[in-house]
Every structure is written in structure tokens, then in C-alpha cells.
Amino acid sequence: MRTQKKLMDQLLSISAFIVGILLIVAITLPIVMTRLGMPPYQIHILISGYYFAVLASSWALLAGYAGQFSFAHMAFMAIGAYTAGILGQQLGTNVVTEIILGVIMAGVFGLIIGFLVLRLRRTYLALFTIAFSEIARLILNAERRATGGPDGMQFQPLVASTTSNIPPYYIHLAMLVGVLIFMYVLANSRFGLFWRSIREDEEAAAAMGVHVVRYKVMVFVITAMIAGLAGAIHWHYIGILTPNNMLIRQMSIVITMAVIGGIESLIGAAIGAVLIEYGLELLRPLGNWR
């Protein structure tokens, strides 16, 4: 037992050291890239990678830890983003208020959908969330007056005082680090233990006193709010959002990032997202073959 505990402590120390190195690299990377004269588009790719890292790691929490295979993640992202955009256009609110209310709205929809579908099991849950995502996309596509329809919705700049993409880079990095710390704490708390027990065997978890539906809805709402946060922040940076960003193909990319990075590892899913996003950009000259 002492040997196992010592080995675990060593592994945790090594992991913490590696994460610390990666964080230092991420903080200094845009400065180094600017000094080397690399084009700003390279920093833009990293920003997109951090956006997908938040989506992939939060989906890993939902599917890898709680066993809930949902295709609604991009729909919640869009709900958070479109809520922020509509508030900015209709009420002229500031960016921070828009982001906060976008996150809340994504959580409200996550709560509603969670109560409706989380009594369902894997295949039926996946089918229902696919249907929900497609219905949401069609509604956003049809409501031209409110959302801009297929032409897209325009957003206020994420940072109005500059055109440089370095401030948005650090905002996205802070979002990713904050979300990962929050999810890590949850995953290693008693809530994480309940989610893993539900993933392994719902009947056994219920027999041991775990309120299965309550904790499934909880993780669904939390991950929906994280997706809404990613959408509200990122599309303020991009400046325009269309319903095409909710296509199943986009959801499949997020799932691929989480699976390749490690569906039961939050940091692994995030790293997988950054690497795949960067790889997709490098392979862009290959067209559809990428």
C-alpha cells in the first residue's frame, strides 16, 4: 500500500509539473510568435483551439465521467452565443453582461432538456439530442429578424479597444484554464464519484442511494453552461455566427477531439482539441481530404 501511494504521489507530481510547463508555454507563446514575426493567423488558430478545448473537455466530463453520450453540446454553445448576440443588438448591453446571460440561458435549456431526456439510456439519449440540435438549428436559421438566419448574427468585439488578437488569446486561455480547474475539482469531489458510479451501473448506484436523475441533470446543466460560455466568448471574438456552426459535423469534430485526447481525461481532451484544430488548419490545402 505504501509503495502504491508513493507511486501515485510521484505520478501526480509529474503530471502537475507537465501541466505547469504547458501553461507556461501557452502564456509565453503569443509573445514568442510575435517576436519571430509569425502571422497573426497562427495565434488565431490557437484561440480556436482553446475554444474547442473547452467544448471537448466539457463533453468529456459529460460522456467520459457521467456516461451521457449527448449530441446537444453545439446547440448549447449556440444558445449561449445567440443569447449574447441578441442582447447586444436589441438592448445594447455590454459584452460581460451578454456573456453572463448567455451562460445562464444555456443552463436553463440544459435543465429543460435534461429533465426531458436523462431518464433515457445511451442510444435514445443520443437520438433525442441529435433531434434537439437539428430543431434548434432550423429555428435559428428561420428566425431572420432575431438571429440573421443563414446570413449570420453579428457581435460586438470581445475587446473593443484593440484590433490585436493577443488580448482575446489570453481571454480564451483564462477561460480554458478556469474551466479545467472547475471541472477537475468537480470530477474529484463526491459529485464526480456519483457520476462515475452512474456511468458504470445506474441500478447499482440507485440501490446505494444515489439520486440518479438529479446527478445526471446536474452534470448536463453544468456542461451546457460551459458550452454556452465558450460560445458567448468565442463568437464575440469572431464577430459573426451562423447556424451552420451547429451542424452534426461540427459536433462530430468535438467528439473526435475528446476521444483522441482521452475521453476520461479533461486535460487530455483539451490537448487533443488544440492539436486536432491546429492539424486541421495545416491540412487545409488538401481540401475535403483533411
What would a concise description of this structure say?
The protein has 12 helices and 2 strands, in the order H-H-H-H-H-H-E-H-H-H-H-E-H-H. By secondary structure, the chain is an all-alpha fold.
Fold and architecture overview:
The structure is a single chain. The chain is mostly helical. Helix content is 77%, strand content 1%. The protein contains 12 helices and 2 strands, in the order ααααααβααααβαα. It has a two-stranded antiparallel ribbon. Helix 2 packs parallel to helix 7 and helix 4 (95-117) runs antiparallel to helix 10.
Output the helix-strand order. HHHHHHEHHHHEHH
Strand order of the largest sheet: 1-2
Largest sheet: 2 strands, antiparallel
Give me the Rg, rounded: 19 Å
Average pLDDT reading: 87
How many angstroms separate the termini?
Answer: 48 Å
The assigned structural class equals mainly alpha
Helix content: over 70%
Strand content: under 5%
Annotation, overall tally of beta strands = 2
Comma- or semicolon-separated keywords:
290 residues; two-stranded antiparallel sheet; 12 helices; mainly alpha; globular
Layout: helices, strands, pairs:
Layout: H1 2-35, H2 40-65, H3 73-90, H4 95-117, H5 122-142, H6 144-147, E1 153-154, H7 166-187, H8 190-200, H9 202-207, H10 212-238, E2 240-241, H11 248-261, H12 266-282
Antiparallel strand pairs: 1-2
Helix pairs in contact: 2-7, 2-10, 2-11, 2-12, 3-4, 3-5, 3-10, 4-10, 7-10, 8-10, 11-12
